[in-house]
Amino acid sequence: MATIDADAHVIETERTWEYMDSTEAEFRPVLASPSSDGRHDWLIDGKLFSRGANVNREIPEASREMRNIELRLRHMDELGIDVQVLYPSLFLRPLTSRPEVEQAICRSYNRWLAEIWRKGEQRLRWVAVVPMMSMDGAIGEARFARDNGACGLFTRGLVDNRRLSDPYFFPLYEEAQKLDLPICVHASTGNFDWVDLFEGESGFARFKLPVLSAFHSLVYDGIPEKFPRLRLGFIEIRAQWIPYVMVDLGKRFARFNRPVGPDLMRQNRLYVTCQTDDDLPYILKYSGEDNIVIGSDYGHTDTASEIDALRKLKLKGEIRPEVIDKILYDNAKALYGL
Asked: Which of 9, 95, 195, 218 could disulfide-pair with 299, CB 3.0 to 4.6 Å?
C-alpha cells in the first residue's frame, strides 16, 4: 500500500530567495550575524526571525534544506514514504506588514518549490504560500502553483486581524475550488499582536489555537456550504480535539435545528492530521474514517514531530487495517487531489 506523508517541511535557505528579480532586491531576506547559540536568524523587513530553533538536526542538513534531493528521496524510502507534501518553515508566523514584501518572498519561495518538484520524480508535492495582503497577488500565485506541482494553498490560522471565515478571503476560496486546490490551515499564527501576546509560552496558544478556532468558525459560518467544492485541511494540530469541537458545534447548531452528525467532516470536505498517540478509535466515532490523514513533520522537532509516524501507524492494532490504509493514503490523496 502506498503512503503519503501529509505534512513534511522544507527549511528555507539563501537559495529560496534567488528567484526575486532586481526590483525586489531590497525585500530579500538575509542571514543576520550568528546569535549566542551559533544560529543565523533571518532578517526580513527590519525584523529578526528564528532559523534553526525547531530543526531536527538528526536529519542531514542537505536533505532537510533540499540541497540534495536524491538524499531526501532515499530517506523517504527508508521511512516507507512514497510521497511527501511539503510545507514551509519560516512562514508559520507573520513576516511583514507590507504587501510588496510579502508578495516578493511568497513568489520566490513558490518558484523554489516548483524547481524542487520538477526534480523530485513526482514524489515531492508542495503547498504554496500566497500573499494574503493582496488578493490579486494571492490568486496569481495560486494559478502559478497549480501549474507547477503544488497540491494545496497554505494559510495561517489567523491572517492579520481576520478570521478565515471573513468574506475578504472568498475570492481566493472561489479560485481554489476552480483550481482543485485545498486551503491548508497549518499550525501557525498570522497576527503580530497574537505573537507578542503569547511571547514565551509553549507554542500551544501561539500556533495551535488559531487553527482550532479556524476550523470552528469556518464550519459555524457555513464556508463549506458557500464553496461546495472547496476542501479544507487542518495540519499539525493532532486530532484529539475533534470530539470536543463536534459536540460544541452540535450544541450551537441545535438552536437552528441544524443537525451535526458523524458525517459532518466528510460532507464539508474537512481533513485533519492525526498523530500515532491519538485515541483513534474514539476520534473516528466523531470524524468518520475518510477525513483523517497523518504527517511526520519531517525536518522539525517539536510535539508534532514523528519521523516514523507512517510506519508506526501500520503497526497499531487498535483500528482495522483498511482504515489505516485510508489514513496513510486514500484520505491524503483525496485532500490534496493527488
From this structure: 9
**Contact by Cβ (8 Å): 41, 91:** no
Count of all residues that appear for the chain in the document: 338
Of the candidates 164, 160, 282, 155, the one whose C-alpha atom is nearest the C-alpha of residue 216 is: 164
Q: 48 pairs with which residues across the strands? A: 43
Q: Residue 207: what are its φ and ψ, rounded to 5°?
A: -110, -25
| 243-258 tens-digit pLDDT | 999 999 999 998 888 7
Confirm if 226 and 183 have CB atoms less than 8 A apart: no
Question: How many domains would you assign to the chain?
Answer: 1
Cell numbers for 332: 491524503
Nearest to 236 by CA among 258, 194, 208, 261: 208
Give the whole-angstrom CA distance, residue 135 versus residue 170.
10
Where helices occur in the chain by DSSP H, the ranges are: 61-64, 69-79, 99-119, 135-147, 170-179, 192-197, 209-220, 223-226, 242-254, 264-267, 280-287, 309-315, 321-325, 331-336
Angle, to 10 degrees, between the axis of helix 280-287 and the axis of helix 242-254?
A: 30
Residue 12: count other Cβ atoms within 10 Å of its Cβ.
Answer: 21
Please state, in angstroms and as integers, the Cα–Cα distance from residue 279 to each residue in 249, 274, 324, 338, following that order.
21, 9, 13, 27
Q: Count Cβ atoms within 10 A of the Cβ of residue 147 and give its class: 0-12 exposed, 13-18 middle, 19 or more buried.
A: exposed
The Cα–Cα gap between 89 and 111 comes to: 16
Exposed, middle or buried by CB within 10 Å (0-12, 13-18, 19+), for 291? buried
* Residues 289-332 pLDDT 10s: 999 999 999 999 887 788 888 888 887 778 899 999 999 999 99
Closest alpha carbon to 2 in 79, 82, 85: 82
What domain range includes position 52? Answer: 4-336
